[in-house]
Amino acid sequence: MQSRVMQSIICLGDAYGLGLSPAAIVTNLKMVGLKMHILLDLIVSITSLTVVGFYAWSLRGHFNSPKMEAGAKLISVVVIVTAALFLYLVWSGAQTRWVQIVGLGFELGAASLFWWAVSASRKARLRFAFDPEYPDSLVTDGPYRYLRHPFYTSYLLFWCGWALASWSIWSILPVLFFTIVYVTAARNEERKFSLSPLASEYEAYRRKTGFLTPRFDQR
Fold it and tell me: What pTM was estimated for this model as a whole?
C-alpha cells in the first residue's frame, strides 16, 4: 500500500512537470495543508470576534436598561474570558477542518438570527438580562413569531459554533455555563411577563411559540 502511495506521488510530480522527489512533494503538500489550516483559523477568529463585537454593540446600541445588573456584568466578564480561551484553543490545537467549517456555519447562523432579532425589536424597549424592571412591550414579529428568546438562542448558537471550531474538551465548560445562565435569564423574563399587565397577551403568545428553539406549528 505504501509503495502505491509513493508511486502516486511520483506520478503527480511527473504529471505537472515538477521534477520533484517524493519527499519534496510530500513536504509541499504538508505546507499547503498548513497554510489552509492557518487560513481557516484566521477566518474563524475574525468571524468570532466580529460576532462578539455585534453583541457588545447591542449593549449600547439596542438594549435600553439604565444600568447593568450583577448578572449581566458577570456575563460580560465571562464573555471576555471565554473569547480569550477559545482564541487560544483555536491557535494552539489541531482542529478537524470539516468541524471548524460546521462551527463557522453555526456562528454565521447566530449572527443572522441576531440581526433579524434586532430588526424586529428595534422599536421595543428591550432590557439587559436580569434587569429587575417589568416588560412594557411584547415583540411578536420576525424571529419572535417562532421562538420567544431569539437573542439568547443566537448567543448559545454562537458559543456552540466557536466551541466546535476550537475542538477541545475545555470548550464544553463555557458552553454549559452560558446555557445555564441564558436559560435562567429567559425563565426570569417569562416570570416577569406573567406578573405584568401583558400577562394574558404573553400567555397566548407563549402557547404558539418555542422557548429557545423555533416552533413552526402555531396552531
Answer: 0.84
Are residues 147 and 209 in contact, defined by beta-carbon separation less than 8 angstroms?
yes
Residue whose cell numbers read 471565554 = 82
Give every CB contact of residue 126 below 8 A, 6+ residues apart in sequence. Answer: 62, 63, 64, 139
H helices of the chain, in order, are 2-15, 22-61, 70-92, 97-120, 150-166, 172-194, 199-208
Q: What is the pLDDT of residues 177-218, one digit of tens each?
A: 999 999 999 999 999 999 999 999 999 999 999 999 999 886
Give the phi and the psi of residue 131 in degrees, each rounded to 5: -65, 135
- Residue 147: beta bridge partners? 210
- Distance CA(77)–CA(63), nearest Å, equals 18
What's the start-to-end Cα distance of the chain, in Å?
Answer: 60
Task: Count other C-beta atoms under 10 Å from residue 216's C-beta.
Answer: 9
**H or E element in which residue 144 lies:** none
